[in-house]
Amino acid sequence: MTTPPQAQAIAERELCGLVNGLASQISDHVRRRAVTLGLTAAQATALRELTGPMTTRELAERMSCEPSNATFVVDKLEKQGLVERHPHPTDRRAKLLVLTDDGVALRERLLELLAQESPLAGLTSEQQRTLQELLEKTVARP
């Protein structure tokens, strides 16, 4: 039995509203936690996504923004002594972004704060994995 188009549209609209609501809650959570560390939400997002050395282009993809925006954020983090640019081992035009010791320490503190009262905290680990799997099926990942 197939779902009538109007019922499917209503269900999709409701689901989109829930996904947007969750995204908004997560953004607000990141922003509130970032402020306590003297960071902007974009700086906190960059620190969260810097899981190891990567190019600005890779960071921009993880942050879902343009490379020029990521460059602006990295410039600020570099001025704060949290990130350094190192030569790329195989591409002389690119630089690798590497956290300094202070950057690593601040990132660890940020991750601790983000884990507190997270919008996803009401879900078990298994439920979070299920949600991730379902979202991965619907979102094209680069």
Tally of individual helices: 6
Proportion of residues in extended strands: 5-15%
Overall geometry comes to globular
| Average pLDDT taken over every residue | 93
Strand neighbour order, sheet with most strands: 1-2
Q: Radius of gyration from the CA trace?
A: 18 Å
Structural class: mainly alpha
Q: Biggest sheet: strands, sense, closure? A: 2 strands, antiparallel
Q: How far is the N terminus from the C terminus?
A: 34 Å
| Strand tally | 2
Order of helices and strands: HHHHEEHH
Q: Please give the share of residues in helix.
A: 55-70%
Low-confidence stretches: none
Describe this structure in words.
With 142 residues, the chain is mainly alpha-helical. The protein has helices at residues 5-36, 41-49, 56-63, 67-79, 101-115, 125-138, and strands at 83-87, 95-99. Strands 1-2 form a two-stranded antiparallel ribbon. A hairpin with a 7-residue loop joins strand 1 and strand 2 (95-99). Helix 3 (56-63) crosses helix 4. The protein is globular and about 60 Å long.
Secondary structure elements and pairings:
Elements: H1 5-36, H2 41-49, H3 56-63, H4 67-79, E1 83-87, E2 95-99, H5 101-115, H6 125-138
Antiparallel strand pairs: 1-2
Helix pairs in contact: 1-2, 2-3, 3-4
